[in-house]
Amino acid sequence: MSSDSVDLIKSAGVVGAGGAGFPTHVKLSAKVDTIIVNGAECEPLINVDRQLIEKYLDKMYEGLKVAAQSTGAKRVIVALKEKNKGAVKVLEDFKQGSLKFEIFKLGNFYPAGDEQVLVNEVTGKIVPEGGIPLNVGIVVINVETLINVANAVEGRNLTRKFVTVNGAVNTPKTFIVPIGTPVLFLIEACGGATVSDYGVIDGGPMTGKLVNPNVHAVTKTTKAILVLPETNIVVIQKKRDISKQMKRAQAICLSCRMCTDLCPRYLLGHDLFPDELMKRMYKREITAEDISNFDYAYLCCDCGLCELYSCVVDLSARSLFHYLKVELAKAGIKNPHHREALTENEFRNFRKVPAPRLLKRIELDEYTSHADLSYDEIEVNEVKLFLTQHVGAPSVPVVKIGDMVKEGTLVADIPADKLGSKIHASIDGKIKEITDKYIVISKN
Ligand code: SF4
Ligand code: SF4
Q1: In terms of CATH architecture, what is 2-153?
Q2: Cβ neighbours, 10 Å, residue 288
Q3: Ligand 1 centre and the CA of 236: distance in Å?
Q4: What ligand is nearest to the CA atom of residue 353?
Q5: Are 37 and 79 in contact (CB under 8 A)?
Q6: pLDDT (tens digit, 9 = 90+) per residue, 167-211?
Q7: d(C-alpha 228, C-alpha 153), whole Å
Q8: Which CATH number does 159-232+366-378 carry?
Q9: Ligand 2 and 251: CB distance under 6 A
Q10: Which of 19, 175, 396, 414 could form a disulfide with 420 if both were Cys (CB 3.0 to 4.6 A apart)?
């Protein structure tokens, strides 16, 4: 039964809906003691998971049963922020069947939903450096992913995504949309932007990516589309290129160490010291020859706290670490940091960043809309399905231009012997365009 379920999840193209997009069939093939359902939703302005718990808990529970059976987990914990009282009440009132789950109420801090932070908060365990929760017998899975797991086991391929559209738009909403829906279409569905010059982010303000709204479309991992004024610090930081970030680090780092003292991975005992990196930037030490001296960059989880919260002069250790990770990979240098015996910093509990203070610091406290879930049917005439919207190799098209497809038809497959995910048509229509990056399906 469980291997059949995993096959169905693979066939349906389910990947982690809350972040990187790790293929769920691989995650649920592991044997673990504990499953943590990640309902933390710690990034500001995203309102998906709490609403899914309130509206679709039955479905999430079905997915949870499949996940527990596949992994053999004996303990199941649903973790969400205590402040989301509506979702907490729905969970507390839920009539649990044969599978029992516990509820863990998280504080309102960032990044409560980071997998390693979450594991520590909920179980007290510390995931090894460079490791994943599986290393300590735990699978962390997102609320929406579980709903997709339940649909997959019912034979429904993944074609829809829950997306919050928030920020500088007239009516923020959370939609259920076909994967591949153009971003501009969603902004229009919210009554348009309230400012003329804006940046658009796919994801949360801290870890999301700045995207071109004229060409970008919803992927399997798009949790939010944020429209923010061009003058907002989040947009400014994400627009700075790496050479500008390096020059700024060389010129104005105060060596105050705040970036390290508040870094969530450092606080879990990892050998990650963003202030040390910034000091070395001052001495201009990064060259192709000594890139291997920066392999600790692999320990950075891109949470963005050092970039958008900790640094008083708006420097970005995160962007330098990101750059280094790419260069290290190009040089064929793997992460050598795998220490297991880690000790939590004694001040960790006092250094958790309160979410309301973060919201103010990144100048987003005026956008507090709940972005209610809209049940309006979203009709799009064209979708763009990216071939990479998951961890692993790009999917390989199995259709050709002119083919007619129905919603749910397989259009791109996992390459042989690779980690990846299948992609299905999200609307009925004709294959209009195929490139090495995406497939376009049009109704017309
Ligand atoms: S982004 Fe900054 S704060 Fe976050 S893990 Fe990386 S170095 Fe630490
Ligand atoms: S917080 Fe900013 S100024 Fe202070 S050490 Fe880090 S990068 Fe330098």
Answers
A1: 3-Layer(aba) Sandwich (3.40)
A2: 8
A3: 18
A4: 1
A5: yes
A6: 999 999 999 999 999 999 999 999 999 999 999 999 999 999 999
A7: 38
A8: 3.10.20.600
A9: no
A10: 414
